Amino acid sequence: MARLEDEFRALIERPDDAAPVVPGGFGSDGSDDEEDFGGGDGYGYGDEPIPIAKPVTDYDVVIDALSPGSIANVRQIAQRMVDAGFGRECAEAYAAARRSFVDESVARLGVRPRTAQEVHASPWEKLEFDIARWIPAFNMVFRILIPSERRLCDRVFDGLAPFGDLAFIAAVRTQALQLISFGDAISASSRAPERLFRVVDMYEAVRDILPDLDPVFSDPYSAALRAEVSAVCNTLGSSIKGIFMELENLIRRDPARVAAPGGGIHPITRYVMNYLRAACGSRQTLEEVMEGDFGANGGAAVAVDPDRPTSSLAVHIAWIMDVLHKNLDTKSQIYRDPSLACIFLMNNGKYIIQKVTDSELGVLLGDDWIKQMTTRVRRWSMDYQRTTWGKVTTVLQTGGPGVGALPTKAMLQKLRMFNTYFEEIYAAQSEWVIADDQLRVDIRAAVEDSVMPVYASLIAKLKSSPETGCDLYIKYTPEDVEAHIQNLFEGATK
Questions:
Q1: pLDDT range class, residue 404, cuts 50, 70, 90
Q2: Are 242 and 195 in contact (CB under 8 A)?
Q3: How many alpha carbons fall within 13 Å on the CB side of residue 51?
Q4: What is the CB neighbour count within 10 angstroms for residue 263?
Q5: How many C-alpha atoms does 207 have within 13 Å on its Cβ side?
Q6: Which of 206, 222, 316, 376 maximizes the CB count within 10 A of its CB?
Q7: Rounded to an integer, what is the distance from CA 124 to the centroid of its chain?
Q8: CA-CA-CA-CA torsion sign (113, 115, 120, 122)
Q9: What distance separates the 2 farthest-apart alpha carbons in the chain?
Q10: Structural domains in the chain?
Q11: d(CA 307, CA 362)
Q12: Rounded distance between C-alpha atoms, residue 342 and residue 380, angstroms
């Protein structure tokens, strides 16, 4: 029986004629014209590196590792061994022979075993590179290699159950678990926000493959491996949720120590809004994850209601926006000048609205949220008008109809006070910044509407005063004041 087993293994390992290969894939011969994606970093057995295979985009491929003639010969020996009561030994011999092919095939894909400790200790730049290799390798193994091994095993052990199932799972389990363990290690590693997009890519790769695994892992012996793939899909989904939670923590921890120059847009606002906009590029996947489905729909995309601002993802993003708003409110308190604090809040609020309205964030957050945010910006604008220009317009008041005319001396005193206030405001606020062009126009227009009528009225009354020499005290004409207002909020560099 030992001689028969040796013959059995020899036929599997060295078939009598070459079998077809996957173009650019597992069957590459390592010749000089083969593209090496590893930059000399092929992972081999012994001293010889194994060339890394070219990428494959069409997964509708089956590898016929043995020719029909070889399969017939191997099938006859398998039948004889099973009939003699050596079915388990036959399965073990088959698995040992095929395992070397599976191991080398995976090595050609540029992936190698990595412990969880190695993954956790690796810099993110290195892990991004590893993930870029892992995703196509995962697809190649679970869409081509393993189904091909199942097909071959079923042909060799046709009618010899359960030995074919035992042989199949023994041949592919090690490399399959190696790929799965990398996904688990990534899921359990740091949940820094910048990792979201690569983890989403991994999740989608695993989720999309789940429906195709059912016919491959249909027997009791391979069901556990199918469950492992489903489990890594769950852990990657949980990792995505955890990354969103870490984004909240990052916003909360962002210190309120350094003020944005001129009340401009804070870096945390830019980061969070651009991050969320980019995340919405994977909105369907994020909806699925936040709902807790984790690929439960068999890989089918979750239907996204375009008018549903109450989904789990929408609620989560609304919560992140609330955390950001509270953080910005705290940062506004750094400014000693309440007017500058209002400018800061207006700038950041307007930026948030822009990023929401021209992306899918607007759909997720809804019109009511946008209206509420717009109302906040309007309130900050009114607060700015009151804190900055309230005292200016008050000092310019000269009384309404039916009120006795102010003495010229009193009007000149008001003019001197206005000049002092206005020069102080202009010196400071010409270096402040309002980033949005339309908001800057609107704020300037509001300042003009509140200041220019009362200032022009005061100047007109002074010019019509019977006392001589009043013109000498007029430092700014109404046109001068208007021109100065138009130069506000340009920033220190302009």
A1: very low
A2: no
A3: 16
A4: 29
A5: 24
A6: 206
A7: 15
A8: negative
A9: 130
A10: 2-225 (no CATH), 245-384 (1.10.357), 388-485 (1.20.1280.170)
A11: 10
A12: 5
258 confidence band (pLDDT: 50, 70, 90) = confident
> What is the token pair recorded at 61?
């491929």
Dist CA 369 CA 356 (whole Å): 10
Distances (CA, A) of 21 to 65, 433, 462: 8, 64, 97
Give phi and psi for 45, each to the nearest 5: -120, 125
Three-state SS letters, the chain: CHHHHHHHHHHHHCCCCCCCCCCCCCCCCCCCCCCCCCCCCCCCECCECCCCCCCCCCCCCCCCCCCHHHHHHHHHHHHHHHHCCCHHHHHHHHHHHHHHHHHHHHHHCCCCCCCHHHHHHCCHHHHHHHHHHHHHHHHHHHHHHHHHHHHHHHHHCCCCCCHHHHHHHHHHHHHHHHHHHHHHHHHHCCCCHHHHHHHHHHHHHHHHHHHHHCCCCCCCCCHHHHHHHHHHHHHHHHHHHHHHHHHHHHHHHCCCCCCCHHHCCCHHHHHHHHHHHHHHHHHHHHHHHHCCCCCCCCCCCCCCCCCCCCCHHHHHHHHHHHHHHHHHHHHHCCCCCHHHHHHHHHHHHHHHHHHHHCCCHHHHHHHHHHHHHHHHHHHHHHHHHHHHHHHHHHHHCCCCCCCCCCCHHHHHHHHHHHHHHHHHHHHHHCCCECCCHHHHHHHHHHHHHHHHHHHHHHHHHHHCCCCCCHHHHCCCCHHHHHHHHCCCCECCCC
List pLDDT tens digits, range 133-152.
999 999 999 999 999 999 99
Q: What is the mean pLDDT of the chain?
A: 85
Please state the pTM of the whole predicted model.
Answer: 0.82
d(CA 190, CA 247): 12
**pLDDT tens readout for residues 194-206:** 999 999 999 999 9
CB of 81 closer than 8 Å to CB of 4:
yes
Q: Look up residue 437 and give its two tokens.
A: 């062009």
Q: 195 and 243 in contact (C-beta within 8 Å)?
A: yes
